[in-house]
Structure formats: C-alpha cells, structure tokens
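pasting for the record
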Amino acid sequence: MTAIDRLSPLAPAAALDPARGTTAVDAASRAIGDIGQRVLAWVGAVGGAAPGAAAWAARAGSGDPGFVPDAGVLARRGDIYGLNAIAGDLSARFGGTPTQEGDLLRALEGVARGAMVQAAGLSGASGERQIAGLSAALDAAQAAPAGEGMDGVIARIDAAAATLGRQNGF
C-alpha cells in the first residue's frame, strides 16, 4: 500500500485475513499476542529462560509461526520485534492514515518495551508468573472502552501499554 492508497476512502484491495482479526478488539488482541510471542522468543534466544512461551501461546493463541529472532537485525539495531510490519499490516487493514500508523507504532513500542521488562525480569519464574503482566495487558486491551476502526485498535493497544507501564513503574 502506498501513501496515495491510504488517502482513498475505499478499503485496501487485498482481502482481509479473517484469522488476523477484523474487529478492533480482535486485531489488538492478536497484535499483543504476537508481540508477547516475539518478546518471549528473544528472551529465550539470548539465554534467558522463557517458560512462559507455552503458557502465552495457550493464553493468547499462537503467534507468528514464521518469526525467528535474528541476531543480525539486533546487531544493526533494527526492528527486532517486527513492529513496523505489524503497524503497517493493521494500518492497511483498517484504512489508517500515516499519522494513525505512527500513533499505532508508538503504542506497539510501548507494549513491546513493557513486555520485555516483564518477560526478561521474570525469566527464572514459572511460565504463568512470567506472563502474568502480559495477560493483564491483554485483558486491559480487550476491556478498553474503545470503538472500532484504526482509532479503536490504537486505543486498545495504548491501554495495554499503560497497564504494562504501571506494572513496571514507568
């Protein structure tokens, strides 16, 4: 999708993938689930214990099966969680503007940052304990009083990021 496509009032030409969620609550929940899986994969890849990966998959659904931590991306200080791709996908699906996509990316970064503090800080704990904060963030996103569309997705992911921030003391 190009910037010109985003200015059109028409839906994107690509069909929506029903497995990825077509409502704001489903899309936000899926994005948070994917971020949780990716964070836990990185915790495991850098030598931490990630017993929460199986518990998180059971709680949030399986994440992106194609995601594998890439040390090369980390060395280049790149987008190690694939947040730009998640934001772009959601923006395309919900007809988001470039500004909304930027707002969504900032919210996703907040979730990823909070999730990493939780998962890495609790890497020696049980799986359920390791994902307790992520679960609370997912619950907050699902219960957020937000509408549909791109603004609803952003509001729900912001609610999750705020929940993780409060838990982590920032």
